[in-house]
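Dear U.,

For the methods section draft, I wanted the exact inputs and outputs in one place so we can describe them consistently. I've listed the two proteins in the order they'll appear in the manuscript figures. Please don't edit the token lines directly; just add comments below if something needs changing.

First protein:
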Amino acid sequence: MTLHDAEPSNLRVLRDSLSATDEYYRTGNRRFKDVGLLADRILDYFSIMPEDFDRLKELDEEIRHFRRITVTLKDVTELKAKIEAVREFEDPGEIKANLKAKYEHGEITLDEYTEGIERAAQMVSEEIVQYEQKKLKIMHIANHYYIPLILSGEAERISYIKHIIQESSEIEFINKLERYLKKPGNKFEDFDWWMFSKLDESLDEVYIPYYNPKSNGIARFKPDFIFWLQKGSEYFIIFIDPKGTAYTDYQYKLDGYKEIFEENNSITKKLNYEKLNTGVFTFLSTPDDNKLSKGYKKYWFDNMEKVLRCIQTSAHLIP
């Protein structure tokens, strides 16, 4: 005990584990010549305090990166004006329909009707600004956690603005999502309500804890996006990480997710929150699902249609 600076409780667990090696250990090709070092590693593992899931709660300040967007430009007049224009966007078709109804009911004058039609014609849902020969794209996506959404229009990172969407995988995901939302009959229309948000790894506190054997400790899996969807009494929380298998630790991250949010037979747990049946899902992106181990293929996606069909099937919501 003194040699390895171990607590008596950890030594008891070590003794118990040696009598049930199939339950506690996985064998491999790596050899340890220093048995003392191996013992230290095992004792370190048994001393790890895992983070456990407590309960579902409403967001407070867990997503906060959009309050920290900083710009280092001297003149931001054009940027502010275009952000404000996109932020105030309303669907022109809905504006015109409301104006027509009010005019026909005598609630507004012809001048007010005409002025409203002109305002609707000036609505913009997207703007492009360029500084230092690098473009920014400002987007209005009504279902995003905050409006507008700002992302880089360049292949390389932009230095004059912080905490926007700059990773190529994330930009590609947003562009694909925008195109999908424009399709009539897309699967989002099957839900009563939905929203999503970008997550910033450096500032936001939304994560899934997992054991990382490389560091022999608990790490935090912070996916790039989170979605919330509701259909009747069924509520879904979806984590999406477009980087996917580009990072070799994806198996450990998914193991952490499965440990908390799935039953032993890989069925999503039903969590109750304010009379809602809630399920938590995680999906990664990969250009080649043949690289995935068999036990992880269900978490792969290459389009939102597959993701939404998967959660609908899990809740028996396929129309």
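Second protein (the one for the lower panel):
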Amino acid sequence: MDMITFELIAVIALVLLAFGDLIVGVVNDAVNFLNSAIGAKVAKMSTIMIIASIGVIIGATFSDGIIEVARKGIFFPEMFSLDEAIIIFTAVAITDIVLLDLYSTFGLPTSTTVSIVFELLGAAFVLAWWKIGDFNEAWTVINNASAIKIIVGILLSVAVAFVIGFIGQVITRMIFTFDYKKRFNKWGFLWSGVALTCLLFFIILKGGKHATFMTPDIKKWISLNYMNIVWGAFIFFSTLSFILIKLKVNILKVIVLIGTGSLAMAFAGNDLANFIGVSIAGVHAFFGSDLSGTLPTPSWILILAGSVMAIAMFMSRKAQTVVSTSVDLTSHDKQVMEKWNPSIFVKKFTELVMFLYKLLMYITPKRLRKWFFKRWETSNGHMHNGSAFDLLRAAVNLMIAAVLISLATSMKLPLSTTYVTFMVAMGTALADGAWDGVCAPYRLSGIITVVGGWFFTALLAFIFTGLTVSILYLTRIYGLVLLILIVFVMVYKLFYVHKKRHAKASRQQELF
């Protein structure tokens, strides 16, 4: 079978795989923008999903359609021929579907950005090795400086997000405590002004940066008038919050719902490249486009992609499984102990941390210690309707995640939005005392499992894509047919594995 026939079939397969990647991608990424709203039970499940779906569709259509697969600097596309580029993109698309579906089946949130980066690294390197036959020369196709910058930035974002989430929640509880309603009715309008201003800039800098109305002139004007816009937005939102609070409107619910919609919009607009980028790039390669330039996508494809993601969120139970993992680890519910089994090392480490904490409390002046503990006094009454945490923490989760992602975007720093949102939630849970002495080892074990899974994401993505690209390079059309069949079988098997796990998960049924 000639090369053109293989390329044509591979491109058709890429288009079909794009739909699968949209579904498995948004199912795993849904945890990022649904976690806070669902954990705090800010509204009915249907209401939360509708708001998130609207955000996803708007975010997809706001995208200018530039799929930056090659322009991200992962590898040098000019070093590969047309058919080789198509092989790379096909291998990435095949691996991505199976890998993300595997994680979602077991309820583990991971980063679609990390998966796509390491899949591209693995595919490009292994194919170059097959061509050149020399390990060192094969690495010359990889843009090492750019790839290292992305990896280091992502790893740093994990630690920074956890620490900032912890500090932000501590400050918030010190101001408002768990019994926050009276204090919030008095001073909450200022806090709300800050939160809404943060979300506004998140929408502008992250969610709307690819929107067609964000022309270079508008971006330049925003940059020149940054501080004026910040103060103007703060005054406007503080005044609006003051009025709404006086009208007995629950402003925290408003903040959480706006935050959910804005995060959904940003994820759809920016992570769309992770889901359909390689497929679009493969189509462009087939028609002879320059992969080192911009790769525009028609608006109707963006609208279709947004609609597919919105439907997938409503229909998929795996999205609920992934969200429940994050909610369980951040809740005050001790049922988390039933899900995670800590090792001896984790138990001993937790004991050491608790000892250091008690030592710190012992050397702290008694009056200061008494005041501090009083700010953290809780009762079962601070939770409502069986929520995992209260509205105040949910709002802090969204606000801090928005700030960190916006700052990184404005400074052009690479990070994983999945890792940031997850670690912020873990940090605020620690600050809120969800990690008490009894369940702390179990929560830590759960976090280690999730974070450890992130490193396996990179490793598995590299290895599996290398294997996939080898099969395609050596067997062409026959290997492609075999791999497509494997994808269908794997997705089918994982569907039934999840179905059995879901039937046993009574905790998840109570949550949703």
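Candidate sentences for the figure legend, describing the second protein: The chain is about 75% helix and 0% strand. The chain has one domain: 3-323+345-511.

Thanks,
Y.
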